[in-house]
Every structure is written in structure tokens, then in C-alpha cells.
Write a structure and sequence with these properties.
Layout lengths: L2 H20 L13 H7 L5 H16 L1
């Protein structure tokens, strides 16, 4: 497999994960329904930077 193809696939998986986090996994979730994450950001309960930092930490931990 060509390196660029792997890069493209990995980035596509990240995009899918974001779609799952914000939409698909929220469909049947009573605790964090669709829109709840966006509402929490708007309310100042969490920032995108907080979420990016958490994702980065989990990724670094998982790759170790």
C-alpha cells in the first residue's frame, strides 16, 4: 500500500470518528443526545481545545 493511501485512510478514520462522536453515537444516547456537545461548547463547559488535548493524550497513550 502506498504511504499516501495510508495517510488518507487514517485521516478519513479520524473524520469518521468525529462524525460518530457528534452525530451517530448521539442518536440513541440519553445522557449526551445530538447537539449536547455543541451546547456544552457554547455554554463554556468544554472547549474544542480540551477535546483535542484529550484525543491527543489518548492517541499518544495508545501508540506507546
Amino acid at each position: 500500500m502506498h504511504t499516501e493511501s495510508k495517510r488518507t485512510l487514517i485521516l478519513a478514520l479520524i473524520a469518521d470518528g468525529v462524525a460518530d462522536l457528534l452525530y451517530y453515537d448521539r442518536k440513541e444516547d440519553d445522557v449526551l443526545p445530538r447537539g449536547a456537545i455543541e451546547d456544552a461548547i457554547a455554554a463554556g463547559e468544554i472547549t474544542i481545545e480540551d477535546m483535542v488535548a484529550a484525543f491527543e493524550q489518548e492517541l499518544r497513550t495508545g501508540i506507546r
